[in-house]
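#struct-help
A.M.: can someone run this one for me? Single chain, 187 residues.
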Amino acid sequence: MQEYFRNIWQGLSTVLTGMKITFKHLFVPAVTIQYPDVKVPLPERVRNRLYVNMDDCIGCDQCARVCPVNCITIETVKSVPGEDLGKTSNGKKKALWVTQFEIDIAKCCYCQLCVFPCPTECIYMTDVYEFSELERENLNFNFVTLSKEEILQKKENYAKLEAEKAAQKAAAAKPAVANPEQKPTDN
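D.P.: on it. Structure tokens below:
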């Protein structure tokens, strides 16, 4: 009989303990946020998606070389004499056309190592953290501002310049070769 009352008391005490916690939180306002409408404020030094300001990019490739997971792909073409590529926001003159600048965010480990070596500070982490996609290919971000036709034109212009330089070198080297019709004279 004594065990019967002990079991009843133990059951009631556990229910009361649980109800005490429930009643304590019953009159406290909820802390749940309505996510798409209300967003949690981010810390100041948060690392999220990368962004590249192509107006400031000089195509130095330092960000791609330092990336530990090789998620940045950069291709450049030298400008031909007479082309003005402009200047960056900090006054550095551009000398290369950036024909490819892609970041594969699916590979990115958000280490921010690519941000620090950039001499023009054109690559940086943004506060955008909502970029989920259904297809992995959609996580490849292309930052190039040139159209495909412009890229082909820049590559062709540089190839023509190199061909002209090679032809000039070949023409300059021809007179230096001895005339094969002349016979050496013995003295």
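A.M.: thanks! The chain has three helices and five strands.
D.P.: also worth noting: Residues 30 and 151 are 55 Å apart (CA to CA).
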